[in-house]
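Troubleshooting: if your tokenizer reports a length mismatch, compare your output against this known-good record of 263 residues.
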Amino acid sequence: MAPWEDTDNSGGVNHQLNFNNDGLFYRNAYPLDSQWGNWKQILMANSNGNVGIGVLNPNARFEVSNSLNTNQNEVIASLTRFGTATGGSSIVRFGYHSSADFEVNSGYTNDGNRFGSYFDLNIVNNHNDGINGGINFAANSSVKMAIKANGNVGIGITNPKNKLDVKGTVHSQEVLVDMKDWSDFVFKKEYNLPTLEEVEKHIAEKGHLENMPSEEEVLNNGINVGEMNAKLLQKIEELTLYMIEMKKENERIKNDILKLKNK
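Known-good structure output:
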């Protein structure tokens, strides 16, 4: 039996829903079709109370699937807002992408364009960086922050090599650096304080203070903040000892001059 009698298909597709013990089914057809299309199950609940959309035997309380669609960019859920531009835009979208097992993004208009500022969140698996798993936070077509499966976090960089890599300026009220040792060994009696002649010789030969990195090393490798502060303190403490010794020397010279005057 035809969906219903009509002289043409100008009215568009007609739809039917069917509710029974097996779930919720749907079919459609044009008015001039000879019969309805096949029933398609779109929702079901099993004996355990699990609800599925597009899956016959849901294994979770709520499972959504489209096992017949092999499109690697398939969208399985979206929240859509219409009327803000030509067509519509998915403002939150969950889907499967060629490089991500799970993706949330701000969607596209019908012509493929995106609204102003937009964002993406990808959970990556077996991506071309060789690391299984990870999360990318993207905005306006570029990754702004990446969390890798090994725990490394990158801000402004997509493949961080350290626990936190930042490409840009970090502004903070406080920075706490754990240290294994400190430079107060300079004040111990057994410390061999270099003479000023030795310091002068090292500067003439190397162009920098002893135990300090050269300009080339700093420009190529950067500096370890905690280690550098310890080395700077070592030089300050050495300078303090030099100043104390110079004061003692000045006192000796002053006393010698007074003795000469009193003769």
